[in-house]
Amino acid sequence: MAKPSFDVIFMNLAADLALRSHCVKAHVGAVLVKDTRIISIGYNGPPSGTHNCDEEWPETGCPRDARGSCSLALHAEENAILYAVKNGANLQGATLYTTLSPCLPCARLIFSAGIKHVFYSKSYAAYKGLPSDEGVDFLNHFGVIAERFDAGLKTE
């Protein structure tokens, strides 16, 4: 029996983490890795210690901000990066595995954190009905490899 690659293991873990999300709208998971070791994990939802959207607002999700976005939610990438930084991890040269390609604000955070490679399984642009994956375009333009990865993933 062939052993799964670390890429497959980490992307499957991101998919499993997405199942932990309390968001009513989307479930996204992320894993930060360096030298085949997990640095941090995250999934989308409100900051720890606030409301869980699926419990507080099970029908509609959290209230919307002025732009129509979730007023409480942190993206999975943000949660993984913030937890890593909070605990003193060095993210320079790390790899991020995420179930949804990064939005532009997350892409800027990924770039600024020194992450050098991003694997994603689904398109944020397709999810949001946008013409292109701005976050992926930004990362690739500035030297971070951002690429779709779906080989060998568990089916949902």
TrEMBL record:
Keyword list (alphabetical) reads: Hydrolase, Metal-binding, Zinc
- State one molecular function term (GO): zinc ion binding
The UniProt record lists the keyword Hydrolase: yes
The record ties this protein, via PROSITE patterns, to:
CYT_DCMP_DEAMINASES_1, CYT_DCMP_DEAMINASES_2
Superkingdom in the source lineage: Bacteria
Q: Does the keyword Zinc apply?
A: yes
Q: Name one GO cellular component term.
A: cytoplasm
Family of the protein in this entry: Belongs to the cytidine and deoxycytidylate deaminase family.
Q: What is this protein called?
A: dCMP deaminase family protein
Which species expresses this protein natively? Mucilaginibacter limnophilus
